[in-house]
Amino acid sequence: MEKDFADKVRGVVRKIPKGKTMTYAMVAKLAGSKGAARAVGSIMAGNYDPKIPCHRVIRSDGKLGEYNRGGTKAKRALLIKEGAIRA
Predict the structure, then answer these.
(1) How many C-beta atoms surround the C-beta of residue 22 within 10 A?
(2) Smaller CB count within 10 Å for the chain: N or C?
(3) 72 lies in some domain
């Protein structure tokens, strides 16, 4: 995976405001690689930087997807707390 693309992905995700979400596909498109949603997932799976809110990136089918800091349950709790989704 290209480091430059990973940096672009992290830059896009860093700008997702509290209370909002983006899909992996949307992040890929904004990072310059429309078909790279899976790559975005891989990049987010390895993200442990608290300044990059990877919990705000969800699947295109509306499911939350995984979260490397506590799984889907933790991701859901964070998104509810931020007002991005309802309980």
Answers:
(1) 18
(2) C
(3) yes
Cβ-proximal residues to 11 (8 Å cutoff; 6+ apart), any chain: 31
Summarize pLDDT for 60-70 with one digit per residue, the tens. Answer: 999 999 999 99
Instruction: Give the chain's domain count.
Output: 1
Decide if 35 is inside a domain.
yes
- We report the CATH number of the domain holding residue 66 as 1.10.10.10
Domain hosting 42: range is 3-82
| pLDDT tens, position by position, 15-62 | 999 999 999 999 999 999 999 999 999 999 999 999 999 999 999 999
Catalytic residues: 54
Which residue reads 């896009």 in tokens?
A: 12
Judge whether 30 lies within some domain: yes
What is the dihedral sign for C-alpha 48, 50, 52, 56?
Answer: positive
- On whether residue 87 sits in a domain, the answer given is no
